[in-house]
Structure formats: structure tokens, C-alpha cells
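Entry type: protein chain
Record version: 2
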Amino acid sequence: MPTHAANRETRRRRILAAARRLAAKEGIENTRMEDVARAAGCTRRTLYAYFQSWDDLFLLVFAEYLTARWQHQTDAMAEADTGLAKLRRWGEAYFDYAQRHPQSLRVQFFWDFRGIHPERLSPEVQAALEEAVEPLVSGMREIFRAGQADGSIKPDLDPDTILGQYAYTLRALMNRVLFPGHSFAEFEPLSFVHSYLDLFLDGIASQPDEDPS
């Protein structure tokens, strides 16, 4: 028979799945704890026994998206030979993952806008978020420095500065592509993203004329 711990984990996963579905359907900003409890088939009291706050619940959803996206990007980068080529694969895989899971980008933008309040988070959630973020950040620094070592990326660039610019600008661009509003120009989404990758990566390449792919 399932143990108490196994039953608790099953219930926890059911609640997280319900939160993901509602965030995708209604928008994270429109999803309340009572909505999640109803969708998960439990009471609010039960829900709060597993997650002490709204921030706790949805930061765990966010952490799951980060972990899944990083795995997708890691798989895509495995076939690239240079640091610069890996950065291109990272960007392409980011866009691919966001196309498949657009709600993950909405959750990301919500946290960008709303911010994170550490005092509202349980130690468990803080640890889960750190566990999701640390491999991504350290992995990207390692790739960037490998690119500087193999000669594909300019040696005088600061990894944290450039990687931050790369991630933030690509995220904004994907928001425009995947959730279009008014635009002064017509564009094909995939070509739009790839032309951006060309421009950005040419700017950090040791030899901008080389094919970064």
C-alpha cells in the first residue's frame, strides 16, 4: 500500500498540475488559491497544508518550468562544438520551449513584473528555486567561458553582463512574437527570432563573419 509520504507527494503533484493548467488557461495573474483547490479536488485548508502561500505554490510551478526548459536547452546544446554555437542552440531551444509551453513565458514575465518576496517563501520553496536556477546560471557561465577559451567569443567580455543582456532581450522579443499586439511591421516569427540571434551573436563573436551555427 502507498505510504503516507507517497500519498502526500501524489496530492502535492496534483495541486501543482492544477495550478499549471489554470495559469495556462486563465493567466497566472487571474488564478487564485481557491481556484487551484477546486481544480485539484481539495479544500483551501488542505491546499494551505501543502503550500503556505500563493507565492510558494507558483514559484514551485516556475521552478518546474525552469528545470524542464534547461533540460531542453542542454539537450539542444549537446551537438554544438563551440561556446558561441552552444549559445545559439540555447536561444533556439528557448524559443522552441516557449512555443510549446507559452504559459511558461507568461509565468516568467509575471515574476519579472511582480518580483519575488523572500519573506513570503518557505525554506523548502527557496531551496527548490535555488536548485532550479543554479544549474542554469552556472551552466551558462561555463559555456560562455568555454567559448572565450576556444576562441569563438571575444575574450574581453564579462559573462554575467552579456548573458543577462542575451536572456532579457530574447525574452522580450519572444513575448512580442508569441503574444503579439500592435506592431508597425509584419514579420515571420521564426525568421524574426533567428535574425535577432544572428545580430546578437555576431556582436560577441571573435570573428563576426563566421557561421555561428
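Comment: The two ends are 52 Å apart (CA to CA).
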